[in-house]
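Re: the 310-residue chain
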Amino acid sequence: MLLNHQNDTVEFFIVGFSDIPNGQFPLFLFFLLVYILTVLGNLMLIVLISSGSLLNTPMYFFLCNLSSLDIVYTSVTCPKLIHIFVTNNGIMSFSQCIVQLFFFNAFWNTEYFLLTVMAYDRYVAICKPLHYTMIMNWRLCIFAAAGTWIGGMLGSIIPTGSTTMATYRAFNKLNHFFCDIKVMEKVAIGNVFYISYAIRFHGVLCVTTSFIFIIVSYCYIITTVLKIRSREGKYKAFSTCASHLSMVSMFYILLFDLYFRPKSTVSLSEGKVLTVLYVYFIPLLNPVVYSFRNREVKEACRKIIKITVH
C-alpha cells in the first residue's frame, strides 16, 4: 500500500451529528443502546449456535460467522462515534482514519461474500437436497468461511490504498460520522481520479459480482420451489431461505438507495440517515430475524432456558 508521507501530520474532524445541537444526549443514548443490543444479540446467537446440537449444520455455521462479523463491523465505527458524543472531540489522525477505513471496507466486503456463500448454501439445500451433505461438507464450509474473511481484507487494499496516495490539507472537515472513502475523496487536494476508479473497481468486484451471484442462486431456488406440487412442501422449502432472503433484500435495497441514486437527489442529512440504517440496523436486526424465523434456534433457546432454570 503506497503511503504519502506528507499526510503524516494531517488531521480529520468528524462532524458526526453536531448539526443537531439539542439532540446530542438523546443521540448518544440511542447509539449506545444500538451498539449494546447489537453486540449482545449477536453474541447470544453465537452461544446458541455453538451450544445446540440441532444447529450443527453449514447454514448455522455461516450464520455464526455472520454474527461475529456484525459485532466487529459495528465496532469499527460505533465506539468512536459514541466517544465523539461524550468528549465532543471528533479529531482523528490520518493513520487512525485510514485504519478505520480499511477495516470498514474489509468487513463490508466480507458481508457481501458471506451473504453470497449463504445463498449458495440455500441453493444446494433446496435444488440438490440429496447431495447436500456431500457438497456442503465441513472442509468446504471452513474453506468458504475463511475465504470470505480473507477476500474481504484483500478487497479493501485497493480502495484504502487509493486514499493514502492522495494529498490532504493539514486540517480536513468530514461531514460524516466515520471516515468514508467518498467523503475523503471530496476533501482531497488535486485530481484524485484514481480514488473514483478504485471505488468503481471495488463496486464491480465485490458488490455487483456478489449481487449477481445471489440473484442467480435465488432464480434457481424459486424455480425449484415452484415445481414442488404440495403447498406444504413449497412452504417448508421457502421457509429455509426466508430469513436470508429478507436480510439480503434489506441489505441491497439500502445499499443501492445510498450509493447508486443520483447524488443530486440525496441530501447530506438523508445520506447520514441511510448510512445509519445500513451500518447499524442490519447488524442489529440479523440476530432478531434469524432467531424468530428459525424453529431450530427457538428450540435451542428453550433447551438453554430449561437447563438454566433447573
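Residues 5-309 form a domain with the Rhopdopsin 7-helix transmembrane proteins fold (CATH 1.20.1070.10).
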